[in-house]
Design brief:
Blueprint lengths: L5 E7 L20 H9 L1 E3 L2 E2 L5 H10 L3 H4 L15 H7 L3 E6 L10 H8 L16 E3 L8 H22 L6 E6 L8 E3 H4 L18 H10 L7 H31 L6 E7 L18 H4 E2 L1 E4 L7 E3 L3 E2 L3 H9 L13 H4 L9 E6 L8 E6 L2 E6 L6 E4 L15 H14 L2 H26 L2 H8 L16 H11 L6
Parallel strand pairs: 1-6, 1-8, 2-11, 3-12, 4-6, 5-7
Antiparallel strand pairs: 2-10, 3-9, 8-10, 13-14, 14-15, 15-16
């Protein structure tokens, strides 16, 4: 056996951590055998949260082990520098044979021009569409490899395992670290009949309507601009396709795990499965992520292998920042940098945790017109918004759909949870800092576009909701919109 265990880290994208068979999820009760086996042979944290519900921010926080307010990964354009310490650099530095395939998506400077500009301008409150999602699609065939690029990365991961094990058998002794980032089940919503037939569509629930209308969430509905129906039939179809995409994700995991078993390396390897964030799938009449509701925040988290008990189902709330210190403990590597999370090692050994049942998340990105943060303590969740907006308070045990805001009817509980949240991070101060960054970044970009003579055309294209819009979708950039931006640029930050 290697001196240190091998690592396989599989990360999907937009996977609701409540939506697979071993979580008792009826539509996929027989359709996620690989995830279910991992949970059965390892340990699953049933209430795991992302620390920021969008791709780059979530991954930057997870890989660095730092909250967003500490690593300053504010949006999909502003992640962390390539030189920033992560658990990738830790394992590479101690001699692991690294294989990184697929989506990592945490470094600054990536994503589209639309992504960065809409993030910078969110607090300008333009109330314009930022997305134009394609219509959900079912391919009437038996294709098992619908999402080809992901399968190419799965194949590369399998080849890495075979080559690395063969190399070690020939005299090498380095443990390996395999990271596989698959893009599924991220929208667009697309699947084949092969995977759709694995979904128990009769058990799909249609989300109930909210008993409140929060202005920030109303802004998000305008920004996300869902165009394909909110009637029960349309919602059920989308949810069925999304669940079918989860079934395909499971097949990708199965391919890697079957290879590991065939190489007789399962006992020498720690396997971790998680996702960057969840997917709304039309809860609260929303798709995508980017808010503090359960479907956007909840992610799977399964550990299997050395130092991990089998069959544990751990209900204490945990979050992505706990993964880095857990990996360090499980592999016996000493932390060389400050981390915000706590090792889950004791719980993976079956010990009772002395840590509180509490998690924190924050969001400063596109499609919301104010920064927001969340704390969950036990059954209660409190969501705060900068800019003076009213908070949201839910009892998740009594109201798992989060349709009843208790902030007004339980003011003492709301006050208590706000204090706990602000003890972790002062939302108003962080929001002020982020807004200053956004204004400065947009000014520089705007001046460059103005100098090139492309500003108005580029803005019109960005707010058509497409990265490459058709000419028919583009409306001229109006003076009214530009006046609002100029007014916003002259605003001071909150503090």
């Amino acid at each position: 056996m290697n001196k240190k265990p091998n690592i396989i880290f599989i990360e999907s994208d937009s996977m609701d951590g409540r939506a697979f068979g071993s979580m008792g999820f009826s539509p996929l009760k027989n359709s996620t055998p690989a995830m279910d086996r991992l949970a059965r042979e390892g340990s699953i944290f049933e209430q795991t949260y992302t620390n920021s519900p969008i791709c780059v921010c979530s991954r930057a926080s997870m890989f660095s082990g730092r909250y967003i307010f500490n690593c300053h990964a504010w949006n999909n354009y502003k992640g962390i520098p390539a030189s920033y310490p992560t658990f990738f650099t830790e394992f590479k530095d101690v001699g692991y044979d690294m294989g990184i395939f697929g989506k990592t998506d945490y470094i600054s400077g990536q994503h589209t021009q639309r992504a960065r500009v809409t993030a910078w301008l969110r607090t300008a409150n333009l109330r314009l569409p930022e997305y134009n999602m394609a219509k959900p699609e079912i391919l009437e065939n038996q294709d098992k490899r619908v999402h080809k690029r992901d399968w190419e990365n799965v194949d590369s991961s399998v080849e890495f395992l075979k080559t690395t094990v063969q190399k070690n058998q020939a005299g090498g002794d380095k443990p390996f670290f395999l990271y596989l980032g698959v893009n599924q089940p991220h929208p667009e919503f697309k699947t084949s009949r092969y995977y759709l037939d694995k979904v128990d569509q009769d058990s799909i629930e249609i989300p109930p309507k909210d008993n409140y209308n929060h202005p920030v969430m109303e802004y998000q509905r305008i920004s996300n601009a869902w165009r394909h129906g909110t009637d029960p039939e349309s919602v059920k179809k989308l949810r069925a396709i999304y669940y079918a995409m989860i079934a395909e994700t499971d097949a990708m995991i199965a391919e890697v795990m079957e290879t590991l078993r065939s190489l007789n390396k399962e006992d020498e390897t720690i396997v971790i499965y998680t996702s960057d964030h969840g997917e709304m799938a039309m809860e609260h009449e929303q798709f995508y992520k980017s808010n503090m509701y359960e479907p956007a925040l909840r992610v799977p988290l399964i550990f299997k292998g050395a130092g991990v008990n089998q069959g544990l189902r751990i209900k204490r709330s945990v979050s992505h920042i706990d993964i880095f210190p857990t990996l360090m403990e499980l592999t016996g590597i000493k932390n060389r940098k400050p981390l915000d999370g706590n090792s889950l090692g004791p719980e993976l050994r079956g010990e009772k945790s002395a840590l509180p049942d509490q998690v924190f998340s924050e969001y400063h990105e596109c499609s919301v017109n104010e920064s927001t943060s969340m704390i969950r303590q036990g059954d209660f969740k409190y969501i705060a918004f900068a800019g003076g907006y009213e908070p949201l308070l839910f009892n998740l045990k009594d109201d798992p759909w989060e349709i009843n805001n208790l902030a007004s009817s339980m003011p003492e509980k709301a006050k208590e949870m706000k204090a706990a949240l602000y003890k972790i991070s002062d939302l108003d101060k962080v929001a002020a800092h982020v807004k200053e960054y956004e204004q400065d970044s947009f000014r520089i970009w705007r001046d460059e576009q103005k100098a090139a003579g492309t500003y108005e055309e580029t803005m019109a294209r960005i707010y058509a909701g497409w990265d490459n819009p058709k000419e028919l979708d583009i409306k001229p950039w109006s003076k009214e919109r530009e006046d609002r931006i100029i007014e916003w640029l002259e605003e001071c930050s909150y503090m």
